[in-house]
Amino acid sequence: MKNTEYFKGKKIAVVGLARSGEACANLLFELGSEVSVTDNQDNSSTRSFAKKLRSDKIKLELGRHTPDFIKGKDLVVVSPGVSDESLALKWAKELNIPQVSEIEIGYLLCPAKIIAVTGSSGKTTVTTLIGKIIEAAGKRAVICGNIGNPFSGELSDLRETDYVSLEVSSFQLEKIEKFKAHISLILNVSRNHLDRYSGMDEYIAAKKRIFMNQDKNDYLVLNKEDKLLAGIAAEAAARIVYFSRQDRLNPNQAAAAAAGRILKIDEQIILGVFSSFKGLEHRMEDVNSVGGVRFINDSKATTAESCLWALENINSPVFLIAGGKDKGVDYSLILNEARKKVREVILIGEARNTIRNALSGALKLEEAESLQEAVEKAFSKARKGDCVLLSPMCSSFDMFANYEERGKVFKETVAALAAKDRKA
Q1: What proportions of the chain, in percent to the nearest 5, are helix, strand and coil?
Q2: Do 41 and 163 sit in the same domain of this protein?
Q3: CATH number of the domain where residue 297 is located
Q4: Does any domain span residue 304?
Q5: Pairs from 336-340 (Cβ < 8 Å, separation ≥ 24)
Q6: CA–CA separation, 31 and 16 (whole Å)
Q7: Which terminus of the chain is more exposed, N or C, with fewer CB under 10 A?
Q8: How many CB atoms lie within 10 A of CB 366?
Q9: Could you tell me the CATH number of the domain that includes residue 159?
Q10: Residue 122 has what DSSP assignment?
Q11: How confident is the model over 301-348, as pLDDT tens digits?
Q12: How far apart are CA 139 and CA 132, in angstroms?
């Protein structure tokens, strides 16, 4: 790591104890910082992360924020899920304490070249593909960030010759200062997170921060077909590379291929990675077939665009399970494709009334009180050859800790149905 001495003796508060908060707190403590962690939630999730803190010298408060955890600090590190409305961040602002995201800490310490990927959908797949392309070319790559394993948890073994394929969200980009990637990718922009942002302009402005520190020696990869990204190139100092859907490549593959070409990786190596890639857990994951009914776990689909992509790639009739915590998504985007394939939509979670209003009159709708109930209802109505698709178009935080837990519950419910079917 580089710049390690900078953090020695610093008094740092980490606001938000989840994956990135826990990883960053442990890293800073090991570098000699005086670390405090505060989270306004006190539940099984925060307590499990608290157990992973490596020293009782890391001060901790759960279930509240108090001014004493912020006063006198040199720096506040903000976890992605924490909004500016947090009392802790308001106190830090009043006290003129600098606030940065966890990826800023990672950048300051990282000796390797960074490839950063953002967008409304497809980030995890593209980040993974880029990492695999680099590895297939015989180089070392670490795949991390918003994808699940935090940037700050992957720094200890990195060398200058390595690469970091980093998924970054708009939330993480809000509080960067010096963060700079050698290659930045903006895959697409669609209505998303409007529960956090005042409108699309503010959301897009957060995404554009990914290239604000790049210079003429860096690259910005943009989706040529995304109208909302039109004009962004003129704002960037980096060299612009465009990608678009091709006959043999979908948009995610085209974006990853563009990064691979910038790194001068042979085209056959890139195509070889695409042909062998089996997909990601919770993203169009074929779970099982029970009584001739196919079950697909697409829990990672938290936008209407992701759900639409799933529907476009399924050829059988569909029972769609959707809902969760609303993010200001335009659910009507799926209507044209859903009219062709969806037998029924089963709605769950806080957003069910909002989704009902968007789809009412065009599709058959029903509600369920839990994901388990939704799976069982769909299976009871499905016929051989049908598909039960979990593609929620919403975040998971009303009912689950994260999309992984939501997908796990879906798979466990399907496994129970399969076991019951075998006994019948």
Answers
A1: 40, 20, 40
A2: no
A3: 3.90.190.20
A4: yes
A5: 337/308, 337/311, 337/312, 338/311, 338/362, 338/363, 339/363
A6: 20
A7: C
A8: 15
A9: 3.40.1190.10
A10: -
A11: 999 989 998 999 999 999 999 999 998 889 999 999 999 999 999 999
A12: 10
Same domain assignment for residues 133 and 268: yes
Same domain, 30 and 163: no
Q: How many domains does the chain have?
A: 3
The range of the structural domain enclosing residue 256 comes to 104-276
- Judged by DSSP in three states, 113 sits in strand
Cα gap 359→364, rounded to integer Å: 9
CA–CA separation, 407 vs 413, rounded Å? 10
Contacts of 229 (CB under 8 A, 6+ apart): 186, 188, 189, 222, 223
Question: Of the residues 276, 301, 323, which one is the last residue of a structural domain?
Answer: 276
The CA-atom distances, in angstroms, between 246 and each of 68, 257, 258, 332, 354 are 56, 11, 12, 27, 35
Output the pLDDT for position 192: 64
**Among 263, 134, 130, 141, which Cα is nearest to 187's?**
130
Helix (H) or strand (E) holding 123: helix 123-136
Q: How far is CA 135 from CA 48, 112, 164, 213, 256, in A?
A: 33, 14, 11, 27, 13
Going by C-alpha positions, the residue among 409, 150, 151, 177 that lies closest to residue 295 is: 409
- Could you tell me the pTM of the whole model? 0.84
Q: Is residue 145 part of a domain?
A: yes
3-16 residue pLDDT tens: 999 999 999 999 99
Q: Which residues contact 412 (CB under 8 A, 6 or more apart)?
A: none
pLDDT digits (tens, 9 = 90+) for 106-132: 999 999 999 999 998 889 999 999 999
Domain-terminating residue out of 215, 249, 276: 276
* Contact (CB, 8 A) for 190 and 303: yes
The answer to the question of residue 2 being in a domain is no
Contact 302, 403 (CB under 8 A): yes
